[in-house]
Each structure stands twice: as structure tokens, then as C-alpha cells.
Amino acid sequence: MKRILKPSFAMSLLAVMAIGLTAASNPKATGDVQWGNTSAGTQAHVVFNAIASANGVDAKGSLLYDDGTYVYAMDVKYMTVIGKTARFAGVVTASPGDQRCCAVGNWIFYMVEDNGEPGNGHDKIWGEDLGAVDSTVALDRVRDLNSLPLGGPFGITGGNLQVHNK
């Protein structure tokens, strides 16, 4: 019985390591940041993680946003990473009440710029509610390197974000 378990365990360990190495080599962006939201007069707070798939455009991840006025959760669907900048978009999956911004089903487009450590005072974030558009609109915005989200840039006043090419 021990002989059967040892090879089986070793093969499982190799499979997990291979999956981990593949995922670790894909471009990704993560952050837990705050900035002054001048339109709401409050402090905005975002926590996010996004990892690109092997094809470089499809992505997985999530984002939580709260500025005291608007609160929402988003599933990341598309992403590109060029240098120190990540661009990603996703669909709002939860927002309490009747919000005019960032309603469930809306696409949100973000861009983040990692300007080293510490992130406070150096990193930047942009964001835009694209509305209830077709997914191709969000994908085009992520791919178009000349298209900036309408909101921002906002300088990070707390926390850090990181962008990894691979």
C-alpha cells in the first residue's frame, strides 16, 4: 500500500506545482489602495486581484470598491499588462440599493500604474463605469492603449498596488 501511495502523492505534487508555476507566470495586478475621491468628498478604497490567462486578454479576478457613497463588487473578465501598467475590465456582480453608478450588470474599466515602493504617493489608478454595454465594448477599451478611463488619475494616499508582467 505504501508503494502505491508514494508515486501517487509524488504525481499529485508535481501536478500542483506545474499548475502553480503556470499561473505564476501569467501577468497579474493586485492592490489594496485608498485615495481621496473628490467627487464624493470621501476616501475611496479598492481591493483587487486580476490575473491574465495564457491568451493575454481573458482574465480572472475580483475587485471591491467603497467610497461611502458607492459600493460594488466586480468580476474581472479582461486584462492587459504592458510594463508597469495594467488595464482590466469586469462586470459588477453586487451593489446595494439603487445606485446610479456601477449597477449590477454594468462594465467597469480600470487602469492601474505601479510606480514602485511605497505605493503611497506614487502609484495611480483610473476607473470608469462603462454602463450596461456589450462585452466587446469593454474588451476594446482594455485593448486600446490610447484609451484612458474617464475618472482619474487618482494618486494613491494609502496602500500599494503591484503589476507583474510575468
In short:
The chain has 166 residues and is of the alpha+beta class. It contains two helices and nine strands, in the order αβββββββαββ. The protein has one domain (27-164).
Features:
about 45% strand; about 170 residues; 9-stranded antiparallel β-sheet; 9 strands; 2 helices; globular; alpha+beta; disordered N terminus
Portion of residues within helices: 10-25%
Number of distinct helices: 2
Got a strand count?
9
Beta-strand fraction estimate: over 45%
Could you tell me the mean pLDDT?
84
Task: Write the element-wise H/E pattern from the N-terminal end onward.
Answer: HEEEEEEEHEE
Walk me through what this model shows.
With 166 residues, the chain is an alpha+beta fold. It contains 2 helices and 9 strands; from the N terminus they run H-E-E-E-E-E-E-E-H-E-E. It has one domain (27-164). The longest helix has 24 residues, at 2-25. The radius of gyration is 18 Å and the shape is globular.
Task: Give the topology, please.
Blueprint: H1 2-25, E1 28-37, E2 42-52, E3 59-66, E4 71-82, E5 85-94, E6 107-113, E7 124-131, H2 135-143, E8 151-155, E9 158-164
Antiparallel strand pairs: 1-2, 1-9, 2-3, 3-4, 4-5, 5-6, 6-7, 7-8
